[in-house]
């Protein structure tokens, strides 16, 4: 498994993407079929791993690429 | 299942009543163990003759009062308890070790299994502490098994010698007295501990998975 600090560098831009599209987290949860709790985990950068199926469903729902959703923060 | 909060698995559906029952059983085992230790130590260190269980090979023929009107009939027995007027010092030491360690191992196992049930109910099944409880039970039973096998043979031989009887074939006595049940339970607990280690790893790897 990768070190903890490396996992923590991945930032999820779900908040920004939702705001741009005027969509709520609950609505996205309905569209994607993932619980609000899990999406909240993802949104707040507390996730340590994401399934390809979840990524695909979120990107389909938001009409974005995976690179738009996840970005890598520079090392501190 | 929430992902980042510590994922908790309960592979056995237990409730508080079940846990209370395990506490009661554990308490009974502990009390029984303490009583057994006190009684056996008193027997070994007391002034009177010492009762000693002697394993038989199955070749010896005994007479049991099971016939009509209590008449003796030929019988074979796996072991007999004989009273030895004076047990040698080393044999007494080994018997004391057995008297203390074996019930203590049963007590430790019962307490560990009760704590194991409590942790499972609380949803902390696959954690290092829970695995340790199973491992401690396993080791305690293996120690009890080794002590029991060694002490039964050694003290039995000493009793035979003290009574002036013929020496038995040690190999045959060892095979006759082999307590397989205890060893099998220890092996089963070892397997459970192994499975729980795998569960711990799987849980660790899936924490935070969305």
TrEMBL record, chain A:
Example GO molecular function: DNA binding
HTH cro/C1-type domain ranges (all copies): 14-69
InterPro entries linked to this entry: Cro/C1-type_HTH, Lambda_DNA-bd_dom_sf
Family annotation (Pfam families): HTH_26
Xref: CDD domains: HTH_XRE (cd00093)
Protein name per UniProt: Helix-turn-helix domain-containing protein
TrEMBL record, chain B:
TM spans (from-to): 20-42, 100-121, 133-151, 171-195
Superkingdom of origin organism: Bacteria
Upper lineage: Bacteria, Bacillati, Actinomycetota, Actinomycetes, Micrococcales
Keywords (A to Z) from UniProt: Membrane, Transmembrane, Transmembrane helix
Name of this protein: DUF2975 domain-containing protein
């Amino acid at each position: 498994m990768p070190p903890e600090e490396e996992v923590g560098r991945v930032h999820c831009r779900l908040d920004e993407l939702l705001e741009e599209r005027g969509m709520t987290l609950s609505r996205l949860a309905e569209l994607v079929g993932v619980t609000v709790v899990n999406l909240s985990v993802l949104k707040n950068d507390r996730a340590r791993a994401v399934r390809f199926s979840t990524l695909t469903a979120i990107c389909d729902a938001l009409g974005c690429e995976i690179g738009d959703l996840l970005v890598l923060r520079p090392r501190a | 299942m929430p992902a980042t909060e510590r994922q908790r698995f309960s592979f056995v559906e237990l409730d508080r009543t079940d846990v209370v029952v395990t506490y009661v059983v554990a308490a009974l085992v502990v009390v029984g163990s303490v009583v057994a230790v006190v009684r056996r130590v008193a027997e070994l260190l007391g002034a009177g003759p010492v009762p000693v269980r002697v394993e038989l090979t199955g070749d010896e023929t005994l007479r049991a009062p099971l016939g009509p009107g209590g008449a003796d009939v030929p019988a074979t027995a796996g072991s007999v308890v004989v009273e030895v007027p004076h047990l040698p010092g080393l044999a007494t030491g080994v018997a004391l070790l057995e008297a203390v360690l074996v019930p203590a191992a049963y007590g430790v196992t019962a307490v560990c299994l009760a704590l194991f049930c409590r942790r499972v109910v609380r949803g902390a099944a696959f954690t290092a502490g829970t695995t340790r409880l199973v491992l401690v039970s396993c080791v305690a039973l293996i120690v009890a098994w080794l002590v029991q096998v060694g002490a039964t043979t050694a003290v039995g031989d000493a009793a035979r010698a003290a009574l002036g009887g013929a020496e038995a074939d040690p190999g045959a006595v060892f095979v006759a007295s082999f307590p397989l049940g205890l060893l099998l339970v220890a092996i089963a607990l070892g397997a459970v501990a192994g499975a729980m280690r795998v569960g711990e790893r799987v849980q660790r790897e899936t924490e935070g998975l969305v």
